Amino acid sequence: MNVIETNGITKSFGKQQVLKGISFSVKKGEIFTLLGENGAGKSTLINILTTLSKPSGGFAKVFDHDLQQDPDQIRHLISLNSQSITLDDEFTGYQNLRLIAKLLGITNIKGRIDSVSTSLNLTEFINNKVSTYSGGMKRRLDIAASLSADTDLLFLDEPSTGVDPKNRLEIWKIIKELRDQGKTIFLTTQYLDEADRLSDRIAFIHDGKISLIGTPQQLKQQAHHRQQIMVPQASIKLASQALAAKGINFNIHEQAIELDEANLQLALKTLLTADIMINETTPIDLTLEEVFLNATTEDPEE
């Protein structure tokens, strides 16, 4: 079941087109991560999907409700944790959560606050003024406020930006626990390690367009098909000469000959013809950082 479906979403501000035909779907119960640089369009897309902004073109559905025809229905089914922390520093953590619960019409307010504050490890500080909280504690309290409605779909817009490593790991743990509870998480981030560690699927957004989409492992495999051929160290020079004579592009890294997958069969035939022993051939696994750089590099012909 798809919780979110988009087709050709565009968004322009005056003459500037920020989103240029965004199409993807988000499955129920997954952590779907939108990964991109600052200014790539991540927050603009989240604002559209959470009904805070209207698209210029295209259409989208959330829980099978049309984004433009049923915005009120959608708002009852989602929660949003935005980049900007929306807390009152003069209130205690408890008072902030109590205000949100009242606005949401929650009946068992104390029970809900106890539940979300426990799950985010806030009970020790819940009665302190928010002005005394660290940045990481404020972010966790802000996420707790977003969880007060207990919806099945949660939008997290760069939730770990600006927090220290300890709180960042704590937020990662919380996100995984929410997924394990059956909730769907739509996450945006500019941190490659965060996307790699948390995501069931990742979409790269660049210049207002989705450039790649898939699981972390699929992205590493599909983005750049490279192979390495392992030969004995004593044969490296001869192998290089044989491949160069055939006009095959390659790189040498210790005992490995690295080349494009399209050239693999010709390279193997060339090496065997030259009586060079081949120890093994294996695909090269790229890091998510390398995949991201490949996906966001401008095509000079565009």
From TrEMBL:
GO terms for molecular function: ATP binding; ATP hydrolysis activity. It comes from the Bacteria. Residues 4-232 form the ABC transporter domain. InterPro entries: AAA+_ATPase, ABC_transporter-like_ATP-bd, ABC_transporter-like_CS, ABC_transporter_ATP-binding, P-loop_NTPase. Gene3D superfamilies: P-loop containing nucleotide triphosphate hydrolases (3.40.50.300). PROSITE patterns: ABC_TRANSPORTER_1 (PS00211), ABC_TRANSPORTER_2 (PS50893). Coiled coil: none annotated. It holds the Pfam family ABC_tran. Transmembrane segments: none annotated. Keywords: ATP-binding, Nucleotide-binding, Transport. Belongs to the ABC transporter superfamily. This is Aunorubicin resistance ABC superfamily ATP binding cassette transporter efflux permease.
